[in-house]
Amino acid sequence: MSRKSSSNAASKNSSALTTGSSSTTAQGSSILKSSFSPSQFQLRLFASVIQSFDSQQLRIHETTTGRLRCQHETRPGSRITSLDWGFNGRDQKQKKKRKRQDNSEGAVVAYGTSTSDICMFSPAEGKVVGMLSGGHERAVADFKFSPATDYKEGWSVGEDAKLVQWDLSKNKAIRTISIPDGAHVLATPSPNPFQILCASDTPFAYDFVKDGNYQQSRFDSFKNPIHSLFRSGTNEDAQDEFFLAADSDRYVNVFNLQNKRLARTLIAGSGVLAADLYDPSEEVRPILREQLLTVVTEAGMVELFWRPFSQPKQVNGDLKSSKKNLTRKSGASIRLVSSDSKTRSVPIFAASIQGPEVVVASADGGVDFSFQKIRWQDEGNGELLFDGAKDFVKVKSASTLNTATLNGVKDTGKSHLDESKTVVVNGGSQPVTIDISDSEKDEDGWGN
């Protein structure tokens, strides 16, 4: 678990892998980056980036049908460097019973470019509807919307060692801060306290006060460039705030923002390619409102860490017990296996929690892929439906079946998942029409 700083971290930035906001090629896929729309948007869309001669293509697929919603080609020579879902500077404060089509019409995918611009692409309109320019002199490394401002603001980091705050209603930069060279990833901004987290191979926190001044905090360095940052909010047990950071090693570190120390380490079975944090909104029933961290590993599996920020309680001052509790393995893991050979695994390259289900993406070869839904949450008590390693059979592509396919699960662990159902659809470039049953319409806990 060594976390020594690396002098060549900046040169490794291009190899950073992230799935929650964006994902780089992994596990047999030619997808350069990808991002599921956030669960609270209720859009069930998947953005992916592929290479196309001298440019790149941004594609938007529907995860329920596999249909290609739209695609967009960048300017020749321009690379897409980051992806994030949000709204284009409009008042999009989430309300109860908001219709999905309302979200779909206003949602955009913001993509950073190697030419220093940030473009707002609308899946509903199939075109770029806004652009942020002039804030960076070199490539944009990452961009994040600020949901706390009703998506009227955003933040970016660039290869020019600048942290930029954007007014999205006016499409202009309103603040620029010099940051350590090599910082290439951001966490979603937090409103209370107003804080920005960014990282190279070292995490940094910027705490802002009312007069516009800020304080910088530095945390322990990692061995490799960090590719994922997630903030916890307030922890109910310790009344402290935490964030987690992951690089390509097996370890996901949880830091305490108050004392600036390592609080806990989550250990995956193999190298972490990507991570995504499910943080349910207040519209979800309280019993289902628990955080879950999904980690895609080099083994092509998805590991689930239930309540990743919860801290262990010391037992009677036992030092040995306390040290043991500073590390934790995943509570459950998901592996896809071939329907032809139940011993042959099918690598997963992206995953996202969408309400009580986890949606995984696996490569069908090249730029084609499939989506598969797996129920993970017990809607009675809100906890994991299974524990240990679990194999799920990858069913045949919907492009050949032309229907949604349901199947059971092969039990390789302690538990048996009687009610598990998966839906696989083709994610390739050809539109596919699939009928979805009424049970598909609303299983996220929001209601209509």
Automatic annotation (TrEMBL):
Record key words, sorted: Nucleus
Biological process according to GO: maturation of SSU-rRNA from tricistronic rRNA transcript (SSU-rRNA, 5.8S rRNA, LSU-rRNA)
Keyword Nucleus: yes
Signal sequence range: none
Low complexity bias (residue ranges): 1-30
GO CC aspect terms: nucleolus
Location within or outside the cell: Nucleus
InterPro entries hit by this protein: U3_snoRNA-assoc_WDR, WD40/YVTN_repeat-like_dom_sf, WD40_repeat_dom_sf
Organism lineage string: Eukaryota, Fungi, Dikarya, Ascomycota, Pezizomycotina
Positions of region (Disordered): 1-31, 70-106, 429-448
Major localisation: nucleus
Protein name (record): Uncharacterized protein
Keyword field contains ATP-binding: no
Domain of life: Eukaryota
